[in-house]
Amino acid sequence: MSKIDNREYVIPIKGMSQGRHKFDLAIGDKFFEEFESSEILGASLSVELTLEKSTTLINISGKIKGIVKVECDRCLEMVDLEIEAEPVMIVKFVKSTDEPEDSEVLTLDMTESELDLTQFLYDYICLALPIQRVHKEGECDKEMLKKLGKYSNAESNDESSNSPFEKLKDLLN
């Protein structure tokens, strides 16, 4: 996990009273700059988190909503995508952290005083990205589409003449 200078995403849990606690966070461009090779190049996100603390665990739930900037898969220009996610995690307190890992359960030693939500938030935002990240129809860079069209037509013509299935078609005749 990357270290972010901003401690906004680190929740002090030592001394936190039992019960429900709400946190409103903002995530911007700087958040993603700290992660190497991040596909997200910018963002304007609002995060509403609810932490419900008991003696042995903390239930975390919330909503992430806003806009992220990524490269378009089609034309490689920047595209703004609206995302929404509902992150959920359970934080268990144990005497030793030798328990097996679970993706939705974080195990902390009882002596921990802070809960760093940076990686948790990053992972949920990445999971909220659509599989295909493209501009709406007609909004892609026209020059890039022309170049793609030129090369994709040339390749499809070459493939048909060099296709191993062409020889099989000859057998049918």
How is this structure best described in words?
The structure is a single chain. The protein is α+β, with helices and mostly antiparallel strands and 173 residues long. It has helices spanning 29-33, 118-128, 142-162, 164-172; strands at residues 10-12, 19-27, 42-53, 57-71, 78-85, 88-94, 105-109, 114-116. It is built from four helices and eight strands; from the N terminus they run E-E-H-E-E-E-E-E-E-H-H-H. The radius of gyration is 24 Å and the shape is elongated.
N/C terminus separation: 62 Å
Give the ordered list of helices and strands: EEHEEEEEEHHH
Strand content: 35-45%
Q: Kindly report the oligomeric state of this protein.
A: single chain
Sheet of most strands: 6 strands, mixed
Mean pLDDT: 81
Low-confidence segments, ≥5 residues, pLDDT <50?
Answer: none
Helix content: 25-40%
How many beta strands in the DSSP annotation?
Answer: 8
Structural class: alpha+beta
Count of alpha and pi helical runs: 4
Total individual domains: 2
Q: How large, in whole angstroms, is the Cα Rg?
A: 24 Å
Coarse morphology: elongated
Task: Give a brief description.
The protein has 173 residues and is α+β, with helices and mostly antiparallel strands. It has helices at residues 29-33, 118-128, 142-162, 164-172; strands spanning 10-12, 19-27, 42-53, 57-71, 78-85, 88-94, 105-109, 114-116.
Question: Main attributes?
Answer:
alpha+beta, 173 residues, 2 domains, two-stranded antiparallel sheet
What layout of secondary structure does this protein have?
Elements: E1 10-12, E2 19-27, H1 29-33, E3 42-53, E4 57-71, E5 78-85, E6 88-94, E7 105-109, E8 114-116, H2 118-128, H3 142-162, H4 164-172
Parallel strand pairs: 6-7
Antiparallel strand pairs: 1-8, 2-3, 3-4, 4-5, 4-6
